Amino acid sequence: MTSAAPIAFALAARLALAAPGPDAWSVAELGGVRGITVGPIENGYHSGVGYGSVAYDRTLSEVRALGATWVALTPFGRVAGADGMGVDLTFESPFEQNRADVTKAIAMAHSRGLHVMLIPHVWVESGTWRGELDPATEAGWARWSASYTRFIREWARVAEATHVEMFSAGVELRSWVTTAHGPSFTRLLREVRRVYHGIVTYSSNWDDVDDDVTLGDVDVIGINAFYPLADAAGASEASMVDHARAIRDKVRALADRWRKPVLFSEIGYTTRPDPAVRPWEWPDSMTGVRVDEAAQAKAYRALLEPMLDERDFAGFFVWRVYSDPDDTSQEAPWGFSPRGKQAEGVVRDAFASRWACDPWWVRTPY
CA–CA separation, 340 vs 344, rounded Å? Predict the structure, then answer.
């Protein structure tokens, strides 16, 4: 097999050589990102089924059969509370073990011909959304920035050593990247580039990306795209497609403004009635929900229909499946995973189609 090293950094080089512009991904002929996020199972009660395991290899088989060309892997760091005192690199397992498992998981994905985006997350123990972290004082922000930089630098080193094709330096850090503290995140991005030489992105939340002050320092604009496609229950699919077209127009305007392509670093809908209304709501907080596969599939179809015809749109990652395909304990039946549901067919059809950002010579699924 061709070494992952030249492949990974050749993608970055081709993107860098393309004329700057919203269609740079298309001009570089990198092919649309047909991605699936594979979540870890690191809980001590589920040993031997996380990243790098035999179970994870079965998930890769399924992902490849679905037509995916990329996977996203999401190692976590731990934050105690909303005051952002710092990031503990240990999460469930010691950092050294997680690093070894992720390293193996990346090699396994590459061996199957899949590109990899490494996207470290922070888990806030208090239940606070990571976008609301607030160290409160200038000294607190400096301490937080230093700690988070250490966390992200460690994973950037893993990305470099394992020839990961894309690295996201953060996820939904609204209180940081949309405020006066944003310049310190820009410095973080520059620190990442000293360590890692692939494609660099950051995963903004869908409703704050327009206010992100750091977008000038990424290669691709990443969005966790949990856009609502309906304002109330019972919306028709045609109405949802209209909402999606408005989203496409916003994405196009964002790409034009920054002269960079846009990637949906996460898309997803839960398996419940009307998931396109407040799609960001976490399934664990719901009770007594009726499982509705058709509604989930309809939301996927509506969002993707206009987006795949957009030349400035580099692709998307589905949120998410798990590293053990047989473990159903990770989320409720009405959760986000499309595995074995009608939405899986929608994703397969989308992956198999030709997109506007694909090279001209693409005629068949990857």
Answer: 6
Q: Locate the DSSP E strands across the chain.
A: 33-39, 70-73, 76-79, 115-118, 121-124, 166-171, 199-205, 220-224, 262-267, 313-322
Check if the beta carbon of residue 363 is closer than 8 Å to that of residue 320: no
Helix (H, G, I), strand (E, B) or coil at 279: coil
Backbone φ and ψ of 12, nearest 5°: -60, -40
Average pLDDT, the chain: 94
Give the strand pairing for 33-39 and 76-79: unpaired
> What local confidence, expressed as pLDDT, does residue 365 receive?
45
What six digits make up the tokens of 320? 């998410």
Residues 80, 125: contact at Cβ < 8 Å? yes
Domain spans of the chain, in order of start? 4-352
CA 334 to mean position of chain CA atoms: 21
Residue in the block written with tokens 């419940």:
272
Closest CA to 201 of 63, 12, 359: 12
How far is it, in rounded angstroms, from Cα 101 to Cα 23? 35
At 362, is the pLDDT very low, low, confident or very high (cuts 50, 70, 90)?
low
Q: Looking at residue 366, what is its pLDDT?
A: 43
Residue ranges of alpha helices (H) inside 120-212 are: 138-161, 174-177, 182-195
- Distances, alpha carbon 19 to alpha carbons 25, 180, 315, in Å: 10, 31, 19
- 172 near 204, Cβ under 8 Å? yes
DSSP state of 354: P
What pLDDT does 1 receive? 41
The β-bridge partners of 118 are 73, 167
pLDDT at 43: 73
The structure's pTM equals 0.96
Q: Domain 4-352 is classified in which CATH homologous superfamily?
A: Glycosidases (3.20.20.80)
Q: pLDDT digits over 232-273, tens only?
A: 999 999 999 999 999 999 999 999 999 999 999 999 999 999
Longest dimension (CA), the chain: 55
